């Protein structure tokens, strides 16, 4: 057994060393958890011979991530079967599917980046209907006409930035944008205006992960005593070096008025093996900051992002339980997405899987009014219906809040607390007195969901 000032580590039978906060004979060993070790990545032809040790190695995951469109096309050539089903019961060819992806990427606001972990969880025998494929790989055939009220910065974050990279909207909370890079790029990203590489349709407003850009943000927070709550996001804090994550955490904890820090990362969802990799220090840094905060009486948490139960593999479960064993608080923020999770059964299964792995289901968001991804947005009536059927099926403290992040920067409101909702026009109106006084904020359902809608646009 190795020991260090903050954590004790135990070598286990999994071929990996995992971090355990403390051990005693009275604790149930995690090895007894009923998780199957199906080597799901071997379904992908090019990874048929990849061993568990290789697959769980963070460096291998990064080296084999798809970083651009051409590597995605090569991957699809070698992975997608020659014939695949369409939603209408007919079939199409691999070549037609790839042509559909190529045309889709020409109009997408987000660039391509995907980890082997997430690629391995896609059902490639039916990619048209797969809920993970829908989130990351656009298809021209699936595009829907944009609502005229859509924007790339739909939450008006740039307008609420007193310092570049810092969004101050709520009285006591700021958003600290540490980087604009992520391990994967989601099609529906709310920060399409800044996150990832530029695309054919969007030039990005980037945030580089450099101390000189963070200094003015630290100064602003220290000079604004009403700010007690910091969300460190991006991009994804998973893409910070461990030393950078530690530096940001330590600097923020030194500021007297800071009481709560949340690190936002999709890493647990899209590359969970990093948490388990004994050669990588990102989760050590997170655990150290969490422990340092606890010693100071301040809370530090990880906020992650799962949208569908298919994203949770046995590797995910082990990584989540490892964080739990190390006393790291983990909460999840789901985005409600058409054809992915906008049905009661899927949402219930997702929430239960998260809860059973000690990931607190915190928010389910109505999709933001971002340009270029209307096929994934849902009408408000969906979130209200799902909320009413989920509530009561699991403990209240594991029931997420179903919210709309109001366009124009009104902050989050419970979806069911609209002032008015006209289902014929799809317009709902909200007020957020605690954030923006009596200003009315309108959310607009996607055009395709309105009664009598007919498509007028071709791409
Ligand atoms: S991980 Fe988060 S910040 Fe990055 S692309 Fe996805 S939604 Fe956007």
Automatic annotation (TrEMBL):
One of its GO terms (molecular function) is 4 iron, 4 sulfur cluster binding. Signal peptide: none annotated. InterPro entries: Aldolase_TIM (IPR013785), Lys_aminomutase/Glu_NH3_mut (IPR003739), rSAM (IPR007197), rSAM_sf (IPR058240). Its cofactor is pyridoxal 5'-phosphate. Keywords: 4Fe-4S, Iron, Iron-sulfur, Metal-binding, Pyridoxal phosphate, S-adenosyl-L-methionine. It comes from the Eukaryota. This is L-lysine 2,3-aminomutase.
């Amino acid at each position: 057994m190795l020991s260090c000032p903050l954590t004790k580590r135990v070598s286990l039978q999994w071929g990996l060393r995992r971090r355990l906060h403390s051990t005693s004979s009275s604790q149930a060993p995690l090895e007894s958890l009923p998780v199957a070790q199906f080597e799901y990545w071997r379904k992908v032809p090019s990874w048929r011979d990849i061993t568990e040790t290789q697959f769980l190695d963070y460096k291998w995951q990064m080296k084999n991530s798809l970083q651009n469109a051409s590597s995605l096309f090569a991957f699809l050539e070698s992975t997608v079967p020659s014939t695949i089903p369409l939603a209408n019961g007919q079939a199409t060819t691999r070549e037609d599917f790839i042509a559909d992806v190529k045309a889709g990427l020409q109009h997408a606001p987000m660039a391509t980046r995907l980890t082997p972990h997430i690629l391995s969880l896609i059902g490639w025998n039916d990619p048209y209907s797969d809920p993970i494929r829908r989130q990351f790989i656009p298809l021209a055939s699936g595009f829907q006409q944009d609502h005229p009220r859509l924007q790339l910065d739909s939450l008006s974050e740039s307008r609420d930035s007193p310092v570049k990279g810092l969004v101050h909207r709520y009285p006591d909370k700021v958003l600290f944008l540490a980087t604009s890079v992520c391990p994967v790029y989601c099609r529906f990203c709310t920060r399409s205006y800044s996150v990832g590489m530029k695309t054919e349709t969007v030039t990005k407003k980037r945030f580089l992960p450099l101390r000189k850009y963070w200094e003015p943000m630290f100064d602003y927070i220290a000079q604004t005593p009403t700010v007690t709550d910091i969300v460190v996001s991006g991009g994804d804090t998973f893409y910070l070096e461990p030393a950078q994550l530690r530096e940001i955490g330590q600097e923020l904890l030194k500021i007297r008025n800071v009481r709560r820090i949340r690190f936002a990362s999709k890493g647990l969802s899209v590359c969970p093996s990093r948490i388990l990799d004994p050669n990588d220090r990102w989760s050590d840094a997170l655990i150290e900051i969490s422990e340092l905060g606890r010693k100071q009486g301040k809370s530090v948490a990880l906020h992650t992002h799962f949208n569908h139960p298919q994203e949770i593999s046995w590797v995910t479960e082990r990584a989540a339980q490892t964080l739990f064993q190390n006393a790291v608080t983990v909460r999840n923020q789901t985005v409600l997405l058409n054809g992915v999770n906008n049905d009661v059964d899927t949402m219930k299964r997702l929430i239960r899987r998260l809860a059973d792995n000690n990931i607190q289901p915190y928010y389910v968001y109505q999709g933001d009014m971002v340009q270029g991804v209307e096929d994934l947005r849902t009408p408000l009536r969906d979130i209200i219906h799902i909320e009413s059927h989920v509530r009561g099926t699991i403990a209240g403290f594991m029931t997420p809040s179903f919210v709309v992040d109001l366009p124009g920067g009104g902050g989050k409101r419970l979806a069911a607390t609209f002032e008015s909702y006209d289902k014929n026009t799809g317009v709902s109106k909200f007020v957020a007195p605690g954030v923006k006084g009596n200003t009315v904020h309108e959310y607009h359902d996607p055009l395709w969901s309105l009664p009598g809608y007919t498509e007028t646009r071709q791409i």
